[in-house]
Design a protein that fits this description.
The protein is mostly helical. The chain has 16 helices and two strands. The chain has a two-stranded antiparallel sheet. 58% of the residues are buried.
Length: 431
């Protein structure tokens, strides 16, 4: 069985929709919270974790539930067809809310609906892809997710300048289109590995912890630590750009376009690199790259970080309000390098986790992956919010703490011994 590139690209529309929603959310919701509602950094950090708290409680059991569900349209598709439309409506309401309770109601509905369909749409990839092609397939999926992030950051930044609601309405439309594309073009397999009893999420976690090899536990802890480090860029970058670099509201999203663009470009090569030299080695390389970038961002002064290197249309930023010229700046290049490092990590981590189990429990182990990454996404913004607050609202402080978490992820990955691609049995020669 070979990798079906066309089907995998079409499946990527599901992750495309997820990425559009969260890229717009992470870029502009912190600005709303600071400017519209006047929340301090520690409360912004807490608010930015609420979606992950919902995901932590919902995504793992939904993954296990989807493993056991049987319906005429498959075991993953019902979650997508219910969750995506609700998410689209809630997302469109968020920018219209001018009082905090209504804002919380809109974001809360979004969080619950997104948590209902993210794990099933991700679990579709290993459902239809053989083990030895999963790094490449995950590269394609994340390529599509990166395209979604680029659209969210680049088009969203330009739309935000016209009306802050426009990026959210764009996301609502795109997530509906993405869900429809997956439903029309992806046909789930209707033959499953049946088993007498499906182990619960808690049982699976206990098995991972009790495993003498500890590879499963180590990679899950590594996932926790590297997402903790990445939260410095993801949750607070828009405010970092405004408060530390002195840029306008939409420029943070434009700068992150470079990271997403390189992530997209490097997504497919990262899958092939993981298959060629090993997933573990590839991930470790990405951790080193990410750490170096964030330390460089910390030590370079703002004037150097926004120094122009060359005129660059579309993804450049406008340094002079009297001129329409846009420029590639130093921090833009650093974020592009970070995009390469993040691709090396992200493309190969989920395939490692799901290749530590049997096909019948892929949804459950996908849920474990999101259990640890989501718990990290809860802790990360809170930690970074308090760091910013305790350092006198110094948004640069998070860039020196993040590499510490990356170093802990590196230590965990060094001890991982399993999770590489499983090759199919060699064909037996017949005379």
């Amino acid at each position: 069985m070979k990798l079906n590139y066309g089907k995998t690209f079409l499946l990527g529309f599901g992750f495309f929709g997820v990425s559009v929603i969260w890229a717009v959310y992470n870029a502009f919701v912190p600005i709303f919270l600071e400017k519209k509602f006047g929340l301090p950094p520690e409360w912004i950090g807490f608010f930015m974790t609420l979606d992950n708290i919902a995901a932590l409680l919902i995504q793992p059991p939904v993954g296990a539930w989807s493993d056991n569900l049987r319906s005429r349209i498959g075991r993953r598709m019902p979650f997508i067809l219910i969750g995506a439309p609700i998410a689209a409506v809630a997302f469109g309401v968020i920018p219209l809310a001018n009082v905090l309770p209504l804002f919380v109601a809109g974001t809360g509905t979004l969080m619950l609906s997104m948590a209902m369909w993210r794990t099933p749409v991700v679990a579709l990839m290993p459902d239809i892809t053989p083990s030895h092609y999963r790094s490449q397939a995950n590269g394609i999926i994340n390529f599509m997710g990166g395209i979604g992030a680029i659209i969210a950051f680049l088009v969203g930044a330009n739309l935000y300048d016209r009306n802050p609601a426009f990026p959210f309405w764009m996301g609502s439309v795109l997530v509906i289109i993405a869900a429809v594309m997956v439903f029309i073009f992806i046909k789930e397999p209707h033959t499953y590995e049946e088993k007498e009893k499906e182990p619960s999420m808690l049982t699976s976690l206990r098995e991972v912890i009790a495993d003498p090899d500890k590879s499963g536990l180590r990679i899950l802890l590594a996932i926790f630590f590297w997402f903790l480090g990445y939260a410095a860029i993801e949750a607070f970058f828009s405010l970092y750009a405004v408060k530390h670099l002195g840029l306008k509201d939409s420029d943070g999203a434009r700068l992150l376009t470079g990271l997403s663009l390189v992530f997209v470009i490097f997504a497919l090569p990262s899958g092939y690199i993981g298959a060629k030299i090993g997933r573990r080695t590839t991930i470790i390389s990405g951790i080193v790259v990410m750490s170096a970038v964030m330390m460089t961002m910390f030590f370079l002064p703002p004037a150097v970080l926004i120094s122009p290197l060359a005129k660059l249309p579309v993804v450049g930023i406008q340094l002079n309000p009297d001129s329409k010229d846009t420029y590639l700046v130093v921090i833009g290049v650093l974020l592009m390098v970070a995009g390469m490092g993040w691709a090396l990590i992200n493309i190969n981590s989920l395939p490692m986790v799901v290749d530590m189990t049997v096909p019948a429990r892929i949804g459950t182990f996908t849920g474990l992956y999101y259990l640890f990454s989501t718990f990290s996404a809860i802790v990360g913004p809170n930690v970074n919010g308090w760091i910013i607050s305790l350092t006198g609202r110094n948004y640069n402080a998070v860039m020196i703490v993040a590499p510490i978490f990356m170093a802990l992820a590196l230590v965990m990955m060094i001890g991982v011994k399993r999770g590489e691609a499983v090759m199919p049995p060699a064909a037996v020669a017949v005379d």
